[in-house]
Known about the structure:
- This protein has 16 helices and eleven strands.
- By secondary structure, it is of the alpha+beta class.
- The strands form three sheets. The chain has a four-stranded mixed sheet with strand order 2-1-4-5, with no helix packed on it. Strands 6-7-3-8 form a four-stranded antiparallel sheet, sandwiched between helices.
- β6 and β7 (about 210-215) form a beta hairpin.
- The two termini are about 45 Å apart.
- The model has no long low-confidence stretch (mean pLDDT about 85).
Amino acid sequence: MQRAWKRVKANKGSAGVDGLDIAQTAEHLRWVWLELRQQLLSGSYQPQPVRRVGIPKPDGSERELGIPTVTDRLIQQALLQVLQPLIDPTFSEHSHGFRPGRRAHDAVLAAQRYAQQGRHIVVDVDLSKFFDRVNHDILIDRLKKRTTDPGVIRLVRAYLNAGIMDGGVVMDRHEGTPQGGPLSPLLANVLLDEVDKELERRGHCFARYADDCNVYVRSQKAGERVMQILRRCYGKLRLVINEAKSAVASVFGRKFLGYALWQGRGGHVRCTVATKALQAFKLRVRQLTRGSGGRSMEQVVEKLRSYLLGWKGYFRLAQTPRIWRSLDEWIRRRLRMLHLRHWRRGTTIYRELLKLGAKPEVAQSAAALSRRWWHNSLSAIHHVLTIAYFDRLGVPKLS
Length: 399
């Protein structure tokens, strides 16, 4: 429990329906822990409902998260620490999501390897609202095959049935395992491992990360057969395939975990950032570099730096130096434009550019067109607000 508490504290996160944050929960547990421990051992513990939070998605829809109370996150984390070492070794080698020592990059590299071997057709299956549609009875049945401890089964069932609070109203849940709790990813893998094992039994090459599964074959006909197998497997688990987003198609042009594959010279298969991920990146950078809102350039760069470093770390497999260079140039242009917006008036622009070492005619040109921020960000001041200048501000490079 102490190890679980350290992990919960490190993960931070907001309060659940009880309104208690991590510090308040720590104080609360000092008084109720003995009673709570007895309830857990006797099997009488009842988790509180999760707090519903909607996270906007790029397509305008929402991803539903269920935030448990800090106390319930602690109990789930402790349960995870016991179950994962027992259950994880039984999972397929083709499963990469939410597992110790594995990550999304492993799945992307596996996809690249299969395509390089000549498997240029992908069976790309997208499950519709997977975490919301997990059947509780089927999940518990699969979990019983991996642990026979009745106390564990009872506690997991209690978490599945805890309900969800939205707008102060608690709604019962008869299906679904809301994203947001430490235990949900393990339970998802318990359920989907059955599909993995069926694909393995048939000798297929595939990569799965959570509910994203891609199977790589050599022909369209083979792909259609695999799609039928997957329909049967997911139907047996009462999961629904999103037909609009699923396809049997060329591996080149389909996105997987934010990446796409393309074939370069000599037939070498390379990774790039998928178009949708690039669009989301640009949208986020625009938001971070929009009108200052009273923020200094240093504050803007600090937030931008955090986002860029995280994005660069995730997409470091992409073999597209030309795209990185163009994005770096675009980001610097956005920041030059923000500088001009900060200065606003022509006289201020003229004065500040002279301070930075601009020639009088360059400063005068920018000042004369003071409201044309985007135009000036390229034509007038790129020799003044240089790459070295942004390096000194701490703006990281993607290239």
